[in-house]
Design goal:
16% strand, ribonucleoprotein, mRNA binding
Length: 125
Amino acid sequence: MADVKTIAESLVNLTIKEVTELVTIMKDEYGIEPAAAAVAVAGGGAGGGEEAAAAKTDFDIELQSAGGSKLKVVKEVKNLLGLGLKEAKEMVDAAPTVLKAGVPKDEADSIKAALEEAGATVELK
C-alpha cells in the first residue's frame, strides 16, 4: 500500500483543475460523491484540530445584522451574490445567517468589507 504521507502531500499540491479531475474520477469510476468524500476526510483527523484551524483557507460569510441601513445592505447582498431583490431581502431579514459558505479568504474579506461599508455587521467563520 502507498505511503499515506506521500498521498497527502500529493493531494495538497493539486491545482484546482486537478482536484476537479480527481472528483470526476472518484464519482465516475468509484461511485464516491464529493460530499461523502469530504465528510470521510473531515472525520478522519481527530488529533489535528490546531493545525486545521491554522491552515483554514475557506470561510463562511455570516451576516450578523443589517444595521441601520438595511436597504443598502440588501442591495449589496443582491449585487455580491447575484441574487434577485426578493431573495437578497429574505437573506438579510433572516440574519444572523450564512450568506455564502466555503469562500476563499481574499473573496471573503472583500465581501465582508463591502457589506460593512454598507452598514452590516459581518463575521467570517
